[in-house]
Amino acid sequence: MPHDALVSRTTLITRDAADPLARFRDLFHMPDDLIYLDGNSLGPLPKRTVERMQQVVQDEWGRLLIRGWTACDWINAPSRIGGKIARLIGAHPDEVICADSTSVNLFKTLAAALALKPGRHVILSTPDNFPTDLYMAQGLIRHLGGVHELRLVDGERIEDHLNDQVAVLLLTHVNYKTGRMYDLAHLTQRAHACGALTLWDLAHSTGAVPMDLNGAEVDFAVGCGYKYLNGGPGAPAYLFVARRWQPVFSQPLSGWMGHATPFAFDPVYEPAPGIGRYLCGTPPILSMAALECGIDLLLDADMQQIRAKSLALTDLFIQLVEMRCAGYGLELMTPRDHAIRGSQVSFRHPQGYALMQALIAAGVIGDFRAPDIVRFGFAPLYLRFVDVWDAVDRMLHILEARAWDREEFRQVKQVT
Ligand SMILES: *Cc1c(COP(=O)(O)O)cnc(C)c1O
């Protein structure tokens, strides 16, 4: 969107009326007067989820008990939901499975990837990667006897560090702090050119950015269920393994649900033939039922429309903050270039923590990331253009009145 000084609350209401995704907002529970800019941390509750939870608890668990595994096809929830996620990320249905947390899935896929490259010992990543990804890699390295090295290099120069020592390039597609997005296809191709495998963390892009994992020939990926998929707090995550790598290796968490025949109760582990071997224990059916509602909503929308609106919302937010809140110490961290921007906008502010607390008190929910970042996520399914105006309006009032400058807004909470 061009820099448009004529933008006003009224023009944005007109813009909302023409929005092809407008009908989705009413499918979510959204408290009145709240502007929710944190769907990249925890997506809101779809109305359908409430009904579905009632049904799965009362009718399925309550009435059918153990028969639900077959009668309600609980047993195939991980592959069925995986197949739906596949449509959002450009994968085949049999390449994705819904299971565990992102952290655990990262462990399983990273272990599988390393085992495919026995002669190489480097996991290449960046120091600003999401910490759990680095922690899981560190734990796996210790577990494997310390022969591998986690090499952390500046993301802007990552290509210079791809060489014949690198077993796996481990990157998060959209950076959680800055919203910067890597060129997934290009880096995957560069990694392959030097004989390395790729493992992408798609936590901040699934459901927000269209992706074509197979078009890019990605090897492994993991992603999160409770952010843009709106699956609920602690929702199950997913993992992707390209068909060509599925039969080659078994992941190390060889639980019975990943066995070829779990109900044969064989004392010897034999992995399931396909993506099923990436399961470990019994799937959390209630959580999966909630997640599936969130995914079904997204599948009803068009990912290209989602991306177009996401960029329009983030452009508008940047424009309005810079126009209306100039001179208050906010410094943009998110790239202006669409090609390298995810679906969030982050600013630095010297009083970032207190500013975000004051915003939350004023009904604008974003979040804070240490040391000084205020972060705003824009989920196109339920956000309106007028919400962007109102959020900036409330921020301007807080900045003008120094309303953040209160003791209660400096008390750092356990979850930020
Ligand atoms: C949110 C997020 C995770 C979360 O991992 P959990 O195991 O669900 O806690 C992992 N990686 C990235 C990049 C994230 O943004």
TrEMBL record:
The keyword Hydrolase applies. Its cofactor is pyridoxal 5'-phosphate. Signal peptide: none annotated. One of its GO terms (cellular component) is cytoplasm. InterPro entries: Kynureninase, PyrdxlP-dep_Trfase, PyrdxlP-dep_Trfase_major, PyrdxlP-dep_Trfase_small. It comes from the Bacteria. GO terms for molecular function: kynureninase activity; pyridoxal phosphate binding. It holds the Pfam family KYNU_C. It catalyses: 3-hydroxy-L-kynurenine + H2O = 3-hydroxyanthranilate + L-alanine + H(+); L-kynurenine + H2O = anthranilate + L-alanine + H(+). The modification N6-(pyridoxal phosphate)lysine is found at K227. Pyridoxal 5'-phosphate binds at T102, S103, F130, P131, T132, D133, T172, D201, H204, Y226, W256, T282. Its EC number is 3.7.1.3. One of its GO terms (biological process) is L-kynurenine catabolic process. Pathway: Amino-acid degradation; L-kynurenine degradation; L-alanine and anthranilate from L-kynurenine: step 1/1; Cofactor biosynthesis; NAD(+) biosynthesis; quinolinate from L-kynurenine: step 2/3. Homodimer. Belongs to the kynureninase family. This is Kynureninase.
